[in-house]
Amino acid sequence: MVRATKEQKHLEDLSKWIQQGSKYKGFDDLTEMFRRFYGLEHMEIDTPAYMESWEKESENFLESFKDYQNLISMVSKDDHLALVKKYKELKEKVVGQKETIKSLRLLLEEKKDRIFRGTGKRISGSYRQAEKTVPGNHGNFRQFFQEG
């Protein structure tokens, strides 16, 4: 619950900052506004306590800013570039997989052709053997197996 309250406060602070941002003209003004929002304006600047607080509040600000970006469905540049990189890698992987599938299909077709030809020869040979041992008219069957 404390974390949710803290996050809500940071989002509100960030919202105020964005709304007031148009009043500020330079980096120094933005730095001053940051110091005010995070309670750093009453601290001595050149002290270890100030630097520690600055670091902590900077991290809080960045966390709040990321929360704000998520709230408005905005993606950071780093996240966008990471997704673009992942997309390119996956696209290359798909190309490789398509080539593999094509090769495997060709091998399967070749194997099916060899099996079919071998089966046809065995059937033809079996038919010839049967034709020698069983007298009668087998012309239709002989013609079928010779053509195949």
Task: Give a structural overview.
With 148 residues, this protein is an all-alpha fold. It has two domains: 2-74, no CATH class; 83-147. It is 81% helix and 0% strand. It has helices spanning 2-20, 27-37, 48-71, 77-133, 139-147. Helix 1 (2-20) packs across helix 3 (48-71). The longest helix has 57 residues, at 77-133.
The proportion of residues forming helix, as a percent range, comes to over 70%
Most strands sheet? none
In the predicted model, the low-confidence regions spanning at least 5 consecutive residues are: none
Oligomer: single chain
Question: DSSP helix count?
Answer: 5
| Strand-pairing-aware structural class | mainly alpha
Determine the mean pLDDT.
Answer: 78
Q: What is the 3D form? A: rod-shaped
Portion in beta strands: under 5%
Summarize the structure.
With about 150 residues, the protein is mainly α. It has two domains: about 70 residues, no CATH class; about 60 residues.
Write a concise keyword list for the protein shown above:
148 residues, mainly alpha, 2 domains, 5 helices, 81% helix, 0% strand, rod-shaped
